[in-house]
Amino acid sequence: MKCRVGKFLAAGILGFSLTLSSFTAWAAPAWTLPESGLKLDDAAKQAHVAAMMESLKHPKGKPAPYEAPDGWSYETYDAGNVTMEKLVNPAAGTDRIIFHLHGGGYILPQDNNHRQMTEKHGILANAREMYLVDYRIAPQHTYPAALEDAVAAYKDLLASGKDASRIIVTGDSAGGNLALALSLYLKENKLPQPAMLILISPWTTLETNLPSRKYNASKDLILGSNNPIMYGEVKNPSYGKGYKAKNPLLSPLNADLSSLPPMLIQVGSYELFFDEGIDLGKKASMQGVDVTMTVYPGMSHDFALLLPELQDSVDSFVEIRDFINWHMK
After folding, report:
1. Which of these is catalytic: 129, 271, 276, 319?
2. Origin, by domain of life (predicted)?
3. 55 belongs to the catalytic site
4. Each residue of 20-79: pLDDT tens digit?
5. Would residue 301 show up in a list of annotated catalytic residues for this protein?
6. Contact assessment for residue 265 and residue 199, using Cβ atoms and an 8 Å cutoff
7. Where are the domains of the chain?
8. How many CA atoms are closer than 13 Å to the CA of 243, on its beta-carbon side?
């Protein structure tokens, strides 16, 4: 396992509106990876995060309709009973595919921030096609609804002729949990694994006894105690209602991780899920998985989602690009 310490923020698991009021409904040019980002010392970064979170508590107006970048195509379609969203970048130079599972504590739906994050991942991967799974959410739909939808969507890609070895599964927060559960399901059912898993601040266990759930409760400015809706959801997950939290498909940290594909794990040192992210990397490595794990000091949960302007986020994007290029030609 390659462990590196970087200096790296945002959350797909917010109880607030995730669409910034400045988003507009016209097609903008596609995002490009900046050469550098906003560099702040720790105190300034925490103030920056706090100000962003405060602004999300008071959104201005309704979210604008999603518009794909200039020249891209965007469509929604049904894969059986699962709603899928597909982005195509005709300028991409490879047949790589992004398959994104969004965060949101299993209670928040797909949103524009996750669509924009998927755009970024597609650009970093030079992927022509990007798929987003609009899986069913709790409390109306509890386990195994989201996993069933992820499996159905993945199988639909395979049935359409997509090569699993060209699929990059990305998941943030609860989406990271779901990405791991999907990979475990594929292993158990002898189905082809994707090329890799990109796990951003993954929620790896629905159990609540790990130390960082307490010592980072006030430090995690995105998912911690200052966000009572989502903080409460982490402590008492709606998605797992009626099932034991130890279930490996709810808490992949408890699973046999051997034979899973290469995985990149990014965690912030201030986030609630810090310990379980570290433990996932250690366990996967011990069980023979090719793991790259990076800790971003002073960063809260899922940081690059809402704060892409920070140097920490830019560094995380570079790492994702390099990890993909290392493992896929």
Report:
1. 271
2. Bacteria
3. no
4. 333 334 578 999 999 999 999 999 999 999 999 999 888 888 878 999 999 999 999 999
5. yes
6. yes
7. 2-13+73-327
8. 18
